[in-house]
Design brief:
This protein is of the alpha/beta class and about 150 residues long. It has 4 helices and 6 strands; from the N terminus they run αββαβαβαββ. Strands 2-5-1-6-3-4 form a 6-stranded mixed beta sheet.
């Protein structure tokens, strides 16, 4: 029996076969998982119901298993109907990575460029969550183990 924070067999399999530079998308419940991600990426659906399982929960488990080289988030528009400023979930992401020994500043990428980044052949794993907060999408790049 596994005893670490990450015990999901399918996620562990992908992390075990992905290497440095591979990417992992952890996406909120609004993300178009099928149409805006690498079609060859393994898709794991953890979106049991609204709010269960959240992006921060998934990030916490992932950070316990791998080194992270970089991370970027989907930035909300700065003007117009959806001008919300910095989403509070980003502070949660930064806190999780910092406590896991990965004090990384989040890169910010506009919505359509973020979608294109998620379609990259480097994206090995897409994790769908039930996260209800908007702009709670994070794209991680796997780092090297020192």
């Amino acid at each position: 029996m596994l005893s670490g924070k990450l015990i999901h067999p399918e996620i562990l399999e992908v992390l075990g076969t992905a290497g440095h530079g591979s990417k992992i998308l952890i996406a909120d419940g609004n993300f178009p998982f099928i149409t805006k991600s690498n079609p060859n990426a393994r898709k794991v659906f953890l979106n049991l119901s609204p709010g269960v399982v959240g992006c921060v929960d998934v990030l916490t488990a992932i950070c316990s298993a791998i080194a992270i080289e970089s991370a970027c988030v989907m930035a909300p528009p700065v003007d117009g109907d959806f001008a919300i400023g910095k989403p509070d979930v980003w502070s949660d992401f930064e806190a999780v990575m910092c406590s896991a020994g990965n004090p990384i500043s989040l890169g910010r990428v506009g919505r359509f460029n973020f979608y294109e980044d998620c379609k990259s052949s480097d994206v090995a794993l897409v994790i769908a969550t039930g996260e209800q907060r908007i702009f709670a999408n994070i794209l991680l790049t796997i780092g090297v183990v020192n």
